[in-house]
Each structure stands twice: as C-alpha cells, then as structure tokens.
Design brief:
11-stranded mixed β-sheet; Nuclear Transport Factor 2, Chain: A; mainly beta; 808 residues; 10-stranded antiparallel β-sheet; homodimer; signal (chains A, B); oxidoreductase (chains A, B); Beta-galactosidase, Chain A, domain 5
Chain lengths: 808, 808
Amino acid sequence: MKSAISALATGLAVLSLLSNVVDHVSARPNPKSGSKWMKDSRARGGLGGSRSHPIRRQDSGASCAAPVAQSIAAPKSNIWAGLTDAEAAPVVAWLFSQKDLNLTTASDAGEWDNTITLVELMIPNKTDSLSYLDGNGTAPARYAHIQLDHRASEEPYFQDILVGPLPIKNGTTRYEPLTYPYTRQTQGKVRNLEADSDSLSDWKHNVSASIADITLELFNGTSTGLDNDTIDAWGQDPYWQEDGIIQWNQFWGLPTDGFDEGTLLPLGLYFAANLTGRDPSKWALLGWFYNDVFYPTTEEFKTAFYSEGFEKLKPNIGGSWAATDQKGPVLPLDTLTPPLAVTPQGSRYFVDTEQKYIKWMDFEFYVAFSRDTGMRLFDIKYKGQRIIYELGLEEALAHYAGNDPVQSGTAYLDTYYGFGPYSFQLVAGYDCPSYATYLNTSFYTAETTHTHINSICLFESTADYPLQRHSTSDYVSITKNTYFTIRSVATVGNYDYAFTYSFHLDGSVHVEVRASGYIQSAYWANNGDYGFHIHDALSGSMHDHVLNYKLDLDVLGTANTLTSTKLVPTTETYPWSFGGARNTMKLARSHIANEDEGKLSWGENSATMWSVVNTDAPNDFGEARGYRIMPATSPMHLTVQNSTNLAKAAQWATHDLFVTRQKDTEPKSAHPANSQDVHDPIVDFDAFFDGESLEQEDLVVWFNLGMHHVPHTGDLPNTVFTSAHAGLQILPLNYLPGDPSRATINQVRVEYGSGNKSSITSFGQAQPTCAVDLAAYEPDLSNYVGDVVIRKFPFDPNDPYFAITGID
Amino acid sequence: MKSAISALATGLAVLSLLSNVVDHVSARPNPKSGSKWMKDSRARGGLGGSRSHPIRRQDSGASCAAPVAQSIAAPKSNIWAGLTDAEAAPVVAWLFSQKDLNLTTASDAGEWDNTITLVELMIPNKTDSLSYLDGNGTAPARYAHIQLDHRASEEPYFQDILVGPLPIKNGTTRYEPLTYPYTRQTQGKVRNLEADSDSLSDWKHNVSASIADITLELFNGTSTGLDNDTIDAWGQDPYWQEDGIIQWNQFWGLPTDGFDEGTLLPLGLYFAANLTGRDPSKWALLGWFYNDVFYPTTEEFKTAFYSEGFEKLKPNIGGSWAATDQKGPVLPLDTLTPPLAVTPQGSRYFVDTEQKYIKWMDFEFYVAFSRDTGMRLFDIKYKGQRIIYELGLEEALAHYAGNDPVQSGTAYLDTYYGFGPYSFQLVAGYDCPSYATYLNTSFYTAETTHTHINSICLFESTADYPLQRHSTSDYVSITKNTYFTIRSVATVGNYDYAFTYSFHLDGSVHVEVRASGYIQSAYWANNGDYGFHIHDALSGSMHDHVLNYKLDLDVLGTANTLTSTKLVPTTETYPWSFGGARNTMKLARSHIANEDEGKLSWGENSATMWSVVNTDAPNDFGEARGYRIMPATSPMHLTVQNSTNLAKAAQWATHDLFVTRQKDTEPKSAHPANSQDVHDPIVDFDAFFDGESLEQEDLVVWFNLGMHHVPHTGDLPNTVFTSAHAGLQILPLNYLPGDPSRATINQVRVEYGSGNKSSITSFGQAQPTCAVDLAAYEPDLSNYVGDVVIRKFPFDPNDPYFAITGID
C-alpha cells in the first residue's frame, strides 16, 4: 500500500485548483490528471468561485448592472475555514508514515484494513478564538481532526485523533486521541458495527437467494447480487443493539424508470439477521416476517408459503406516480414565464471568497463547512458587535415507527452519513435566484479533497410584503422588506434538506430548514396505526424529523443570562378597581439559574418568551439588552419518549430547546458515530446538564426545528418545501434604542390630503430606469455538474460515497 | 331634514363612477360635484380598476410584456358582492321615507337624532347560495342589511334591520328586524353606550380644565377643547360595564411633529367617569389615579399634589425616536436599488373586475368586502371542485393588561370600528409588488358609498426557494415555487393589519396576518409587571392580538367530518420483537362527534393534525379525502382566562380553534356591537356549542391567528411585519392521487454524469430574452390618494370616520 502514498500529495494538489484559496494556484504543479469535468470547472471558477453562471455585462449605458458581489477583505482570517490542501496533504502523508496506525489507502483497503475516513480542521476552542478575534492574540493553532476506521481487529472501531499543530514537521508532529470534546472518555474510540459491509452484502444475497422461489412469485424478482436484480434487501440503520447486533431487513423494488423512487417500493417481506461479531459464518438468520406473522426459520416460512390459503399480498410497483417529471394537462398560462427577481444595480453585499467572509448592511459573518453538519456560521456581528459566536446544525434525526420491524427499527442519525458530502451544487434559478453569488465547499474522502462547486448561495431578496407601514389621515409611511440569505442544500439519501439563514433590517437572524425529496415509505399491510394508506400497498410511514442547532449567542460579551418572560393569566385587585378583582394577565419574569433547569419548552399557548440577555448591560431604561429566540413555525420535539431505538444517542431531541454553559469540552451535542453505540454514546447530551450556574455565564442554546410528518398522497412523488418547513427567529430584544430598519432609505412617506397631488418623500432612493436583459438571468444549466458524490443506498460506512465521478 | 333626502340618490350616483360596475357609467348623469380627486381617479380607473399605475406597453419586439391581468367572465354572478349604487340609493331614500324610523341625515344629526350607520348587502344564506351555484336555482334574493343608530330615546340602541327583497318597490317593500343570525333574540337591537359622544367630549374637557394647573405643571399642557391643546384625555374602549358604565381615561400628549405617535405619549394621570345614562349633568367623576395612588375626588388629588414630597413623574415627549422617517447613517450599498420582481411575459391570472372573480392556475374564487371585516373570499374552487365556501376574518381583539386602569381596562374588539372603512389604498411597490393588479372596495357612510381605490391587490410571486427538489447520482429534479396572493391592509387606529391569502401549486391555501404601525403603550410607573421599559416613561404594554377566522371547508360536498390524527408516544410489543417491548409512537385517529367536543387545541408538542374530510368519499386507497388545517406559525389563543373585560363578548378567543355545524343562523362568530353589552352580547359564540352532531355534516372551522405581544424598544417607532406575523395553511390531505404541483412546466430535470455536459429537460418552459424596462415598474406614487377615511382617535361611533376628504 505504500505505493499509493506518494500519489497522495499530488492528488490533493490537483484538487486545490478547485479550492477557494485560488491565489496559490500558480505556485502548484500542473495537474497530473484533470478530468474534463475538472477542466470545465476551472474555467468557470476562474474568478474565485463567487460567480456561478455567466451574467453578461453589457456595454450599453441603458443596461442594468450585473449582479456581481462586491469584493472585500475580511478583517480577520477565517479560523474556522477548512484545511487548505497545503495543510491536508502533508497530514495524510504523515499519517501513512505512522507504522503503528497500519493504514491502507481507501482504494486498496478490504474489510480487515485500517483507513482514514476524515481529515478536517479541528474547530478551534472558543476560548482561543476570542483572544485572536477580540484581542491581540495570535490565530489559534490549527490541528487536523482525523477519523480512522480501524478494521484490522476482531473488535473494529472508529477513532478520532488530532494531528498537529500544523504545519506538519516530521520528527516533532504527534497524534493524540481526541477525547476532550466527548462525554465518554474512551480515547475517541467508538465501535464500528458495520465493518464487514461487503461480507454482509454477500450474506444477505445468500439469504435472499434461499427464498428466490418465493420472491419470484411474490415480487417477480430476485436479489442475488447480480446486475439484473430487480429487488434488493436493506433495512434498519443503525442496527438494533440489544441482545446482540440485529438488523431487520425488507425487500424493496429497484426503480426501473430512472427515477429515485426506491424508498417508495417496499415489498412487505422482512428478515432479521444477528450480525454480532466479525465471522459471517456465525451470523444468524433469526426469522422471517410477512403479513403480521413471524416465522423463526426459512423452513417454517416456506412451509407456510406453500400451504393452502397462504395470503399473498400485492407488491408496490414503480411508475409515473413515483416520477417527479411534469405530468398532466399544462396549467392555464403556465407557459408564460412566472415572476422573476432582478437586481437592477447589481448586488448590494460584500464577499471575501477566499476567507468566506460576508457583509450585508450592518451584518457580517464567516462561513465554515464540515463533513458532519455542512455549512455553519461563525462570528456574526451586527453593527460591529458580535451577537452570535456560532450558529449551525448539530444533528438531525428521522425517527420512524410501525408495525413492521424495519420502520419500527429505523431512527436515522444523519450526521453518521454527514451533511457535508451531500451538499451538492445548487441549481441556479431554482434553489436560489438566478442572480445569486455562490461559494464552493469541500470535504475529505478517500485521500482526496472533494469540492462541491457552487454549493452555498448568497443573495438578497425583497419580500412581497413590506417591513413596516403606517397609514394616517395625513400620510402613509412604508418600508421595503429586503433581506439577505445564505443557503445550502443537502440530499441525505431520500430527503433533500434546504438550510437557510437570513438576515433582516430589523436586526434579526432567521434560521430555517425545509425538506423535500422522496419519503421513506412502509408496506401497508397491518401498518394502519402508523400512517395513511397512500398507494397500492403503501403506507406513508409516520416519522418525526428533529434537527438540533447550536446557537451560541454572545450579547455584549460572553457573560449572559437566559431569561423567561411569560404571559400568565391572573386575577388581580388594583388600587383603583373599586374593590373588584378582575381576570387579566401579567408577565412572569424569571431566568434559568443553572443547568438543572436547562431543559426548556416554548410553553403552553406559545406564551413563553426566551431571551439571552446581558444583565450587566442594561439599556438606558434599565432593561437588560438581549436577543430573543422565537419559533417562526409550530415548535416540536421528538414524539417518542425514552426511545428504545435511540436510547441515549439523541438526548437533545427530548425538549424544544436547552441551555448549557459554553465549554470547550462540550462543543457539539452529538457525535456522528453516536449511532454505533446508542446505549453508551460518545457524546451523551444529557451529561451536559450538571448543575453549573448559568447566571451571567457564556451560554449555548440548543434548539430543535422539525416536523411531525405523516405523509399523505400529496407527498407522492415528493414531499414539498411549502409544508415541510420549520424555522426560528433570533430577534433583538431591548438591544437597541429603537427599530434599526429606520436606517434604510428604501422607504417612502406619502403625504396627501383634500384631493391634491400627493407629496412624496423617498429619502434618496435610487430610481433605475435601465433595461434588464433577461437573458442574463437565464441560468446556463448545461454547465451544471450535479455534483458527484452520492450516497449509496443502503449506506456503507466503509465506502460511503457511491460515486466520485470525474476524479481520477 | 327631508331636504337632504332628495340629494341622496344623486350623491350615491356620483359615487357609482368609482364603483366596480363601470359599464353603467354612460347611463348615469354627470356628477353634480366631482372633486379633483374624484376626477383624477376616474381618469385612472377608466379600464375598470384592474390597473393601478401606468405600466407602459412598448412596441419594440424586444421589450417584455406589461403585467396586465387577463380578463375573464365569471361563471356565475358574485352573489356576495356589495350592493350596487343602483340598489343602495333607493334603499336609503326608502328608509328616509319611513316615518316611524324618524331618521336624520348624518350631516344634520345631533345626539338625539336617529341615523343610518350601515347599508350593505346581507350576505345570502349558504343554503340559498348553493342552490344557485350548484343547481338550477336562481340567484338568492338580495336584501339590504341596515344598521340604525337610534339615539332619539332615553335608551339609545343600534338596530340591525333587513330591507328587501331588492330592488325597492314602494308599497310592497318592508323592513324587518334582523334577528336570525344572532344568538340573542332582541329584534337586532344592542344598546349604544356612546350615544353622547359630543357631550362626553365637553364633559371631559371640563374635567381636564379643572386640573389645568396640574397638567400645565406636569405636562406643560392643557386639554380644554381648544385648537391649541397639546394634551388630550382618552381611555378604555369599550367602557366598563359593571356597576354602571365606567370609563377610565388617561392624559396623552398630542404629536407636534406630524407623525402619528400619539399612542406613544401616555402621561400617567388617569381619571374615572361614571357615564351611566344620557344626562351629562349626572355623569360623575369617580376619582383620580396617579403614581399608584387613587384619589376619590379632585380636591383630594389637588391637596396631595400641592403637598410637600408629592412625587412628580416625567412626561413622555415625542421626538425623532417616535418618527418613522429614515434616520441614521445610510447603510452600506443601500443607495443601490434592492432586488425587484418583474413579470417578463405579463400576468398569468384572470380577473373579472366587475364580478370580483379571480382564476389562477387550478384555483378560482370570488371576493367580497364588508364594513365589519373587510375582504373575504367565497366559493374557492380547486380543479373545478369547491373546497372552501367561505374564508374570512370574523373579529380581532387586542387585550391589554396593566397596573393602570386604562391599559387594564382595554380590550378592543375591532369590528366595532370595522376593517372595511380602514382598508385604504395600497402603496404600489411596497404593500404589493409594483406589477400587481388592484381592485377597489367600497362601504357605506353618511349617506354615501365610499370607495377605496386600489385597496385589494392581486399578484403572483416566485419564492426564493423551490417547491420541490431531489438530487440523485444521476439527476436533479427541481420545481419553481410560484404562488398567487390577494391582500388588503386595514389601519385600525394605531395598528396596520395586512391580510394575505395565497394559493399554491401544491393545492394549498395559506392565510396570514401581519401587524405593523404604532403600539398602544402605557405609562411606565408601576407597570413593570406588564411590559418592558422601552423609553423615558414608557411601558411596551403587554397585549394579545387574537384574530378569529371563519373557514367553511366543503370537501366534495357539505357532508364532512373533522378528524384528528395525533402522534402519540406508546410502548408496544410486536410479533417479531422477540418479546421485548419498545418505546415508540403511533397514530391515534379519531373524529369530533358533536359540538360538545368542538373546542379544540393544536395539542402539546404540535402533535395533533386536524383535518376536514369526507368519510363518504374515500380515495382509491380507502383514506377519506380531505383538507388539513395546519398552523404555519406558533399557534395561540387569548392568555386571559374568563376575561372580566370581555365577559362573553369574545368566546371565540378561548381556544386555538373550534368546529361547529354550519347553520344559516350562525353565520358569524361575533357582532360589531358585542362590545356594547359584553355580559349579554348579541352574538355569544359559546351558544353555538349545543351538542349537535358533527359527523358528515356541513362544518365550519373557526380558527385563531394572533400574537402575544410584549413590545420592546424594537417596536419603536413601529412594530414590524417580520416578527408580528401569524399564519395557517389549508392543505390537501389524501385529496388527490399525488402532488398536483407536478403539473407545472416551471420545473427542470438535469441529468449529468461522468463529467459530460448535462442534459436538460425543461418541459417547454418559456425562455424570455426580452428587455425589462424598469421605468415601467416604478410606481407613480404622486397619484396615491392615501384614501380619505381615518379613524378618529379616540373613536366616536356616532361620527366614526374622521375625515372624508374629497367627497362633497
């Protein structure tokens, strides 16, 4: 395997051409092998990635400006940006030179070899970061966060290690187990339950082949591992972890029409496998389940099947009902182009593409990107003052239920797959307005840095409703509602999650997630208590999506308090009320004193306002300045209580929101391998709650967004973003003397009266009269590469990214 | 007073020129007196009111189309449209000819005269309407709904009467008390607590003058009724109705800077008046309240005031903090024009302006407009099938609380003022996109029909996020999210409510309300339990906004059932679970059997799905077809329990939503005069719940939208629409075989792979390459007339519309 190592640095160097640090390009060797796809990408990325599609500038003075973002230099280095290739390549080479690690390159590795599955920047501790950001401190030392997949062992495990400080210096660089951010102190090690994925595939095909006669009769198909298989068997993920390692599987149809409807084709025949240990010969078939009857052995199942009166249920078969293409009569006037937003005078925000630093109006922030959770934001400042140190997704679960063992057993923890690898190129004009600015992102896989072209978009929008208005007998005052958005979309298997952060003129930051894509359905028989009957033999299998976010607000420093302002009904007698008591309401003001009180709810009747304030920084009127956290949609948490599936692996899902003390040792509420040991997870969020004081401390709010999803026929073929939506607003609360949106000139006051012409005050607004060339807003999708990293289905953690086309 | 009557028909005829029935214009006499304002309006309205501002069509083939709505003829008459002037004018004349009514024209009436306060179409009974809409029945007979203000009596009252059927035929036309839609059977009569508004004004000025020495010292102002008053006294509305008719008043500063900040200038000095009876000489001053001390007499108050140590609190004084104009440094790049939506190929919807009938994609509906509740929608059909018979606001309350008697006593019921009269002209390019289509609305006041020019807007928008997407290893499929909106905005005193209904390609209808404008604040002293301290001596007075809507869904006919599908935690043992119980979840499906169960909640953890289904109309898979009702924001109802202020006048506010049997005798959940007798309101919503079966009956859902509002500094000068927002979605549930948005051609599928050029399927989408002339999208606000009917503050029910400029 050593022969592969020498190619690594070169391979990483090749990929650096796609990275955001473009000013290094000229110093690098020519690519040894660049695919056509890469060359195309370079051609497009020549200006540094902030332009995604060709916006034509026109010379005519009458033409409107092209919407290119204004450039700016970030005031500080983005200390959360990923490793450069110049940093990463030596780390990988150095790791391969560590004999004790006994590593094999991904392409050469088998089930009993050790591999590198992650090479990424270790996000610096907040403590170190603040001294750099706010003081005269140097930038925090950079470390590589490595995940190793140790499979050369009877007891395979993943291990997180740190390598650094960077850059690598042979002879002095060391690695150490990464333990401090985890509640379980096991040298950063978590067992790998899925080390033998290739063997398992073979084993399942043997099981499937043993009843090929039955699957042929029931489903007109077999699953034997051949290319012409028309059915497949896959199942619960993570595995069941009581009394051995168990996986229930179901047969599913394989799509034949080119659409991705596999999760809509359950076939209702299930089998359980005991997968304990690494010797496939000792794995055991535990039985079959069909039409609510459990058969302990294949023989018993076959005997029953061939008995008189055995009820054979119909299969689910793909077809146009499961295809997403246009169908049906064209809607009236739909052949005319729908409304379209344009930017007459170009973009109104600043981007430092290299540093992933963005400034819009009074907001500025840095963007980071990780394999586990994709895009996140750091150091969000408003009017020059930090308000949020960190904001991003921590984990997402999809917890199903059912009378059948596969749906009942399924509770995905999506960071196991990772949001980063599946944050694909955005579709200009669809995922984001055609005039958006784009950024690239990258992640590590199989000794390469893989870059997602144009996978983050930035744009301004003007809402179809104003921000402020008031009419009187003399005048109307009204303000346009223009806001700024940053978005990425991750398709984790069947579901497409759109992650949106937006910034508003009232000083608020909005967090949203929407879900589209294919549902994971269930076979209908006997599942009536767990979903609607939505197609021939199909249940819209009920499930909860819960997405946990970290919100590290810093209001005028890190010493903050979480206050509760609750509207409560009361009966009161007042000095002026002539003795009569009245039923009214009042405010109950309190705060969270310590972590024992830190598990929170939005409260009955949405009557509780939670706010992070600085009680040492009252405003001129004595109210503590702060930021309020407010649900923008119906709040929710996980329906299932004490989930047997998840055990302790997702304790962040039990309440609407939580508050803890910010600690360098508690940076994340979840670990991507929590699914591998749900009863003893490497990050047990519950362990964060140990009574520490929260009064004027550095606080972290962990809030959940999500949807209770009971799919109906309208989820076929795909769930739509309009209804599968959750959001939260982070709003100034007594933070400024007044509404900051008064600063915008994009407002008008019209004075009228007595039938005379109105008098208009427009505050110096621009009045463009240029012509917008719509051709410039027509995205050239022929250059869309669709990205290239697609989740294998079912997922194989040892070979996680099914196809990396275009990269040699 | 008879002399005035002959002018009435002419006056109404004049106004018909502004109405939407424009084809009658040529048959009418020339206006006797048309103001400049009216003439301007005619010139603009010449095409029938569907165009609000001059969009220039250009002849060049390269220019994009102008966004003029397509015309269409409504399939049926709009039987909910307001009375035409041809109908209304004879009704008014006829009423004046009824000697027993003893009516006086508004301009001539004093406190002891009877007047007409409403002339409006009586919305036909649903029973009658359906036979016309669905069968061969004739259109329902039209009746005029009249409200009379009987003040020529010791016991003044409002009375609702019906006049009809129309047209008026002298000799046969009769009037009858309107009683059948009300739960209280009192001949349509409700007492008028505010008959003596002029006398009260004088009386209050006398009280104020009696302490002019004090107000001068405390506030540097007096309230004596002179033009140069700089303070005013006004107070709780409705009056307190226990132990006499009591009103607490407060002194407030009068704005001097031209801005409408009066509700931000409370002065903290209060007095109570017993206003029982019609003899002002018997009205009694009940005492004073200042800085938490009650003084039963003026003498005692004065004595205290001039005693040593009396604490004099500082007044609230207006200033730039309360003005809405632009202030502060211009934001970076804000001088560039923000993004702007355009319609390259013109509008994509149909409007019958005369019938107020609208068709967009597979949706069609009629618009109605009333004095009490403004805009509402009728007969919403989707794919040719009625889904909603009626959708509209019923009532809105704003319930305050406080340690002071005015805020504690305030619980506005806004239909008393009416939303119709305050639904002003919309500001093109701000309230709605500049390319919107507009409709006029009208209401009756003082023997005239008053028309709001361009007070309803219609437009399409494309959201900044897609409707559907899915990425796979081979392709991405993604759909534009274009939707249709109808909006009106009503400024009821200090608050501006924007009412929005939108229609979506997934078959859903969204209902939204947003609030902006000035808060009604409180004086800070001793009010710390009731709000934040937001300015010098100002409390952001806590209050609940609750807005009740009527939603009459008809799913495949009127025989419907309200079902509940609830996600519930459970512990289950399954045939395949090897004996182990697991903590999981399941669906609890049930339905509301009768009205005793009809008061509903969205449930803990947002886990309850409410749906109106037709159990006799299962889909192909056996699920009842239906429409789901889902909160789009955090749901809420009134915090106050058994409100002493509201007593029985707003029983619709006690829960999140309600379901009752649709009855012609229960058309509305509230009456605009409920505030006049809160203990015995003319519509007691609670009386609707009398155990009637709701299984496969015609149902009405009454749902609440609203906000718990605890204003903070960011509400100064105005609350903003971004955070003061509530919404609900009405979504197909197993109603169609699949997602109907698949019909749109505005989607794309891009196939990619292995670095080759992508293959694009765009389903025949238009690809406009024309040039958009932005000058055509620049609204000409110099023609904005601002409308002309402004609520007097404080409100005077006998002279409700302060200024009707431009109408002679």
